[in-house]
Amino acid sequence: MKNLDYDVILVDLDSTVYDTRHRHHLAPTHDRTKTWADYAGACLGDVPFEAVVQLIRRLWAFAEIHIISGRDGSALEKT
Predict the structure, then answer these.
(1) Dihedral of CA 17/78/39/21: which sign?
(2) What is the CA radius of gyration of the chain?
């Protein structure tokens, strides 16, 4: 396999690794009465995109993978 030119790959958790469409209505960009904590707090219903998970597993052989998120601490245990 081809060697990658970088050592670290950043992958965003929400809407990249996990399907978050079921909670989009909770985002303040859709409903101004909601908060990002409301949106993040509904993460228990998220399901992974299997193709992305498989890609991450393959890339792991070549680079350090860091999964990042903009979630605040209110969803830490659920995450």
Answers:
(1) positive
(2) 15
Global pTM value? 0.79
Residues near 40 by beta carbon (within 8 Å), at least 6 away in sequence: 71, 72, 74, 75, 78, 79
Q: Are 51 and 79 in contact (CB under 8 A)?
A: no
Rounded CA-CA distance 27/46 in Å is 14
> Does position 2 have pLDDT exceeding 80, yes or no?
no
Q: Are 36 and 24 in contact (CB under 8 A)?
A: no
Contact of 3 with 62, CB cutoff 8 Å:
yes
Percentage of residues in the chain with pLDDT exceeding 90?
75
